């Protein structure tokens, strides 16, 4: 074959060394590429190889930087050393970078994934036993994947090389030493690929049994809107912090000029995407009681609206889910070890994914405004003790003493988080009047037992645990698996609202925020702030509404891996990730001692942390590459 290698880092990536399951079927002494595209069945295996480079965002050792890389989750550092959590602890480095997608060390080799996509696109037309429409559809899927892989890299590294096609083996040494391209050029190329893919993709998969997760029109148009939102955001749009960042030849890699037209492109892309997505039948998720649940209260239903949005497989809100990122193991780490005293010694689930007090504080009051703004909420005494009553029985155990902090919060607080005294509906008990609750102080059935196997900050990520999961015996935890959600309608609504506000269409922006809030019975933004906030005029200003939309997005997408990226694209990471990580004092057995705020870690974030470093060795091999600022 003519095309054998790709220059991605100044290193030649041999096709024979790629992670390709299809290679197992190739007989000896047969040209690999010729064999792979000799018929439809082998070409399909190559197609799935292109899909295989999608990072597994639900892996327990977590290949998802968004999962643990910010300030949502925390663990015991003496027990766990997840690489993305190490990023949150400030341990990124240039000698052996954590989650090194550039060189494929400790993470997927994304450049090899792009190489495989290029090979597929160069050869799919030659397959003899396929109709042209199917060749075009498969090529469109791969163009999308190629766009997504470039998007993944530009989010992580900023300016990157654009790999339009693989280099021939005859390429000179200088041709192999590729250069980074300006971020605007990278985003433009990604959008170009997405536009090329849309016309040949199906609206829906034909066979949901075998094809769910494959790329369709709603996925492509939705991701186009999201890509453009990143390109329009402060990190990439008029970022003066990178004003002098350039290649060795002087090519500037960032523009310091802000361009509002980028937000206008987001508005148009969102409108196009939502038109398609709505026409196909996608809508915001609402939990439907069943024979299993019986009749449930409105409060419990709102809590399950939050949980089910991500855990209810292929529901109407999900636009794209990755079937290669399945969540069975993640759920065992999110679910508490025990839900009753009889489960004290259970080990089927370990509950080690702890959610920080810092994140818990961001959820609204029951009135739909920040707790620090709500004139009716007892903010100054939020760490005092209070005992649950019958009025709170669907949120907090009646008669149980917990922190004032946990009372009178919005439904997403109770749908997303498990906590001492908090109700945990489901898991085999569907009696809404007498559900499970958590008891997590030291010495109680869910209290700290060892260095791991408990939520270090005192909160569990209930949102990621399907409500039907059960612990059947001491060592067995049965979970309802679901694929990791990559894109959903609530995400797009809030991106649309964000863009509308940036171009001065605030009334329409509020309309889409209110659509998301209505899922949980919350009042609209204007009504909530006028009635309950110490700052009632906040929604009436562009800056104020921007703050509201960003907080709404943080809450709605909490624990889904978006905050890590959002803080960066908004350029709010130095503000948020230089605050201490806090939790309750889980070593204590008495409520008055347990509910003392404990600093678990002092985070730090500086300019260099916005982007991954390129490994020093790669810079030596390819002298045309420049390092990211600060490294």
Written overview of the protein:
This protein has a domain at 298-485. 36% of the residues lie in helices and 9% in strands. It contains 23 helices and 16 strands. The protein has helices at 32-36, 40-51, 65-68, 83-88, 110-123, 132-157, 173-176, 183-198, 208-211, 217-232, 261-280, 298-311, 328-334, 357-360, 411-416, 489-502, 506-518, 525-532, 542-556, 563-569, 573-576, 591-594, 616-621; strands spanning 5-7, 12-14, 73-74, 318-326, 354-355, 385-387, 401-403, 417-419, 423-424, 436-437, 459-461, 470-471, 477-478, 483-488, 580-584, 597-602. Helix 2 packs antiparallel against helix 5 (110-123) and helix 16 packs antiparallel against helix 17 (506-518). The relative contact order is 0.13.
Q: Indicate the percent of residues in helices.
A: 25-40%
CA-based shape:
globular
Total helices: the number is: 23
- Low-confidence spans: pLDDT under 50, at least 5 residues? 1-30
What is the CA–CA distance across the termini? 40 Å
Major pleated sheet? 2 strands, antiparallel
Strand content: 5-15%
| Overall mean pLDDT | 93
Strand order in the sheet with the most strands: 1-2
Main structural class: mainly alpha
Question: Quick one: how many beta strands?
Answer: 16
Rg to the nearest angstrom? 25 Å
């Amino acid at each position: 074959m003519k095309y054998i290698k790709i220059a991605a880092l100044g290193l030649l990536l041999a096709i024979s060394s790629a992670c390709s399951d299809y290679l197992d079927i190739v007989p000896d002494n047969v040209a690999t590429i010729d064999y792979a595209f000799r018929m439809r069945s082998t070409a399909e295996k190559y197609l799935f190889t292109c899909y295989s480079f999608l990072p597994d965002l639900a892996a327990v050792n977590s290949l998802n930087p968004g999962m643990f890389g910010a300030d949502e989750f925390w663990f015991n550092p003496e027990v766990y050393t997840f690489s993305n959590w190490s990023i949150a602890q400030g341990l990124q480095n240039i000698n052996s970078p954590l989650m090194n997608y550039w060189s494929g060390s400790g993470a997927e080799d994304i450049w090899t994934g792009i190489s495989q996509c290029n090979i597929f696109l160069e050869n799919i037309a030659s397959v003899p036993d396929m109709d042209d429409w199917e060749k075009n559809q498969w090529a469109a899927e791969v163009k999308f994947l190629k766009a997504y892989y470039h998007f993944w890299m530009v989010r992580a590294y900023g300016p990157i090389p654009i790999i339009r096609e693989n280099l021939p083996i005859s390429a000179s040494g200088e041709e192999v030493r590729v250069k980074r391209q300006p971020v605007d050029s990278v985003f433009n190329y990604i959008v170009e690929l997405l536009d090329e893919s849309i016309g040949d993709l199906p609206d829906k998969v034909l066979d949901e049994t075998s094809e769910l997760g494959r790329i369709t029109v709603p996925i492509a148009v939705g991701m186009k809107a999201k890509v453009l939102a990143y390109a329009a955001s402060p990190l990439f749009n008029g970022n003066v912090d990178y004003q002098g960042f350039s290649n060795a030849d002087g090519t500037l890699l960032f523009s310091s000029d802000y361009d509002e037209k980028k937000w206008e492109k987001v508005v148009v892309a969102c409108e196009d995407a939502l038109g398609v997505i709505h026409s196909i039948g996608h809508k915001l998720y609402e939990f439907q009681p069943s024979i299993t649940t019986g009749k449930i209260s409105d409060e419990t239903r709102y809590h399950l609206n939050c949980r089910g949005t991500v855990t209810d497989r292929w529901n109407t809100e999900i636009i794209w889910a990755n079937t290669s990122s399945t969540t069975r193991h993640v759920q065992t780490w999110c679910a508490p070890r025990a839900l009753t005293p009889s489960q004290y010694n259970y080990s089927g689930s370990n509950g080690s994914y702890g959610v920080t007090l810092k994140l818990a504080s961001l959820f609204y009051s029951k009135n739909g405004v920040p707790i620090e703004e709500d004139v009716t909420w007892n903010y100054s005494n939020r760490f005092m003790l209070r005992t649950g009553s019958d009025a709170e029985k669907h949120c907090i155990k009646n008669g149980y003493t917990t922190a004032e902090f946990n009372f009178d919060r919005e439904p997403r607080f109770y749908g997303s988080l498990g906590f001492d005294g908090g109700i945990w509906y489901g898991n085999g008990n569907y009696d809404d009047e007498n559900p499970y609750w958590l008891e997590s102080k030291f010495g109680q059935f869910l209290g700290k037992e060892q260095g791991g196997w408990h939520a270090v900050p005192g909160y569990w990520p209930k949102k990621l645990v399907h409500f039907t999961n059960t612990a059947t015996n001491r060592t067995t935890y049965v979970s309802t698996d679901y694929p990791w959600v990559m894109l959903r309608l609530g995400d797009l609504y809030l991106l649309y609202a964000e863009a509308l506000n940036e171009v001065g269409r605030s009334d329409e922006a509020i309309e889409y925020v209110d659509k998301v809030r209505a899922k949980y019975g919350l009042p609209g933004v204007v009504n909530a702030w006028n009635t309950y906030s110490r700052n009632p005029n906040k929604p009436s200003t562009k800056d104020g509404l921007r703050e509201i939309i960003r907080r709404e997005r943080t809450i709605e997408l909490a624990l889904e891996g978006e905050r890590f990226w959002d803080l960066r694209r908004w350029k709010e990471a130095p503000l948020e990730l230089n605050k201490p990580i806090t939790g309750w004092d889980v070593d204590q057995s008495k409520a008055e001692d347990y509910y003392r705020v404990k600093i678990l870690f002092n985070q730090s974030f500086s300019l260099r942390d916005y982007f991954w470093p390129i490994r020093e060795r790669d810079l030596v091999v390819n002298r045309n590459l420049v390092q990211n600022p600060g490294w």
